[in-house]
Amino acid sequence: MQKLAIIGGGISGLSLAFYLQNDFDVSVFEKDKWGGKAYTQKIESYLFEEGVNGFLSNSPKTMELCEEIGIKPIKANENSKKRFIYDNKIVEIPVKPFDFLKSDIMSFWGKLRILKEFFIKPVCDKEESVEEFATRRLGKEFTEKMMVPMLAGIYASTPSKTSMNAAFPKLKKIECEYGSLFKGMIKLKRGGQPSGELHSFEYGMSEFINKLKEKTNAKFIKKEIRDIGELKDFDKIIIATPAFEAAKILQKYNKLSNLLSKIDYNPVAIVGFDYDDIKPIGFGILTIKEKTLGVLMDKYIFPNRNGIRVMLGGARYPEIKDLNEEEIIKLAKKDVEKITGAKNPKITWLKLHKKAIPNYSLGHQKLIGQIFEEAKKEGIILTGNAYKGVSFNDCIKNSYELAQKIKEGNV
Ligand SMILES: Cc1cc2nc3c(=O)[nH]c(=O)nc-3n(C[C@H](O)[C@H](O)[C@H](O)COP(=O)(O)OP(=O)(O)OC[C@H]3O[C@@H](n4cnc5c(N)ncnc54)[C@H](O)[C@@H]3O)c2cc1C
Question: What is the pTM of this model?
Fold first, then answer.
């Protein structure tokens, strides 16, 4: 059997190992925590996620993988459907189009501008930032009030720093196929709600990671790979680390390493607190201007969580990575008090990811094209959330597809 090495034991590397276990003698190398950004910390009676909070049930590969390894995901309860934005006061995000028009989340003129979307011509021949796309189609106010918090919540980024084509390819496709987002949504019978339901696991994401490892016939080796030359004994090597780590491992391939270093990462600090009766009850609150990007009310939507988590930094406030623990916690406490009025948390926990999430900047797709072309020339296989989708679901789907290509000898 051919020997195959996977560098990186996050969900991308681990799911790839699972899909290839019957066809290769697989070894997975991980320098830190199995699960990478999918890791659950247990502190007293609290479960705090260091990264991934959950995933939507609209990606069949993730649900199939759960079934294959024998783990049952849990659906977030009804509270998770209530989502809020803080714009000097907390406002609930209306999900139905009619409720949106009735709500005071935007001005009358801002809402009127949104309706013009039906008549705006599509732009399909050039790449746009999310800011350009949303402002062109839905107006400036929509971008400021809705897209700024949304980008912070999904990518820890901002609309001006994110490529629409790379970050939301499905929406771009709807615009080009149907001529307008609203026309497309009506044809596809989709409203404003996400197309799947939020899921996690009873004891957090690490429960899934542990089960996945248990059901994978591979060697799991705790070791940092500093140079690809260390793995000469292997027939195939797949790098499933963040791009900046891949750049270091591949330093001897100058051009490829330089291209990989061009993928920027946004920092995120996560502070866990618990307050007795913090409001509102719901999924959480996203912000528009604050250094805190959002407050996630974990305790109201999944069992065993007990606490809330505050996300800070991102592209809006990258300086977060230079603050010390005390400063970050102080900032988080102050923002929670300003946003919700809650004071004196019962517990405090912190995780700082100095390079948390890849930023899909303008030019991302072109850069990825160059990276994959160069990697192919050198016989190197890359995967992970830096390239073709940041979500947990994307990572599993991409690993599945890559595994099929590897089995067929197509990479
Ligand atoms: C704060 C935060 C919240 C998130 N929330 C969600 C969410 O709710 N839903 C969602 O869908 N997605 C979420 N994500 C996105 C999430 O990052 C991805 O879905 C996914 O977990 C990334 O997996 P990965 O395996 O590609 O990368 P990683 O999880 O980063 O794994 C890469 C692994 O490679 C290891 N490694 C690096 N260098 C080396 C080396 N030289 N040798 C050996 N090992 C190495 C690392 O230690 C790491 O374990 C979140 C991300 C963050 C940061």
Answer: 0.95
Q: What is the pLDDT of residue 97?
A: 77
69 DSSP β-pair partners? none
CA 242/CA 30 separation, integer angstroms: 12
- Between CA 333 and CA 338 the distance in angstroms is 9
Rounded CA gap, 196 and 114, in Å? Answer: 25
d(CA 106, CA 141): 7
55 pairs with which residues across the strands? 199
CA of 209 from ligand 1 middle (Å) equals 12
What are the CA-CA distances from residue 218 to residues 3, 21, 145, 206, 335 (Å)? 11, 7, 47, 18, 45
Instruction: Locate the ligand 1 atom nearest the alpha carbon of residue 357 and give its number.
Output: 53
Q: Across the 411 residues of the chain, what is the mean pLDDT of every consecutive 10-residue run?
A: 97 98 98 98 95 95 98 96 95 87 90 94 96 98 96 96 96 95 87 78 98 98 98 97 98 97 98 95 97 98 94 98 98 98 96 98 97 95 97 98 96 86
375: CA distance to ligand 1 center in Å?
21
Which of 15, 34, 52, 298, when mutated, tests ligand 1's pocket best, judged by the most ligand atoms within 8 Å of its CB? 52
Please compute, for residue 188, the number of CA atoms within 13 A of its CA located in the half-sphere on the CB side: 18
Q: How far is CA 357 from CA 157, 198, 243, in A?
A: 9, 20, 11
- Amino acid 192: pLDDT: 56
3-state DSSP assignment of residue 10: strand
Q: Which amino acids bring their CB within 6 angstroms of ligand 1?
A: 7-13, 29-33, 36-38, 51-55, 224-225, 240-242, 245, 249, 268, 270, 353, 356-357, 384-385, 390-393, 395
Query: Which residue do the tokens 């690490």 mark?
Result: 206
d(Cα 158, Cα 180) in Å, to the nearest integer?
23
Atom 48 of ligand 1, residue of closest alpha carbon:
36
Please name the residue whose Cα sits nearest to atom 52 of ligand 1: 51
Nearest CA to ligand 1 atom 22: 385
Residue 33, pLDDT score: 98
Cα of 37 vs centre of ligand 1, distance in Å, is 4
In this structure, how many other beta carbons lie within 10 angstroms of the beta carbon of residue 319? 9
Beta bridge partners, 286, equal 85, 294
**Tokens at residue 375, please?**
């990697």
Domains of the chain (ranges; CATH) run 3-38+205-264+361-408 (3.50.50.60), 96-187 (1.10.3110.10)
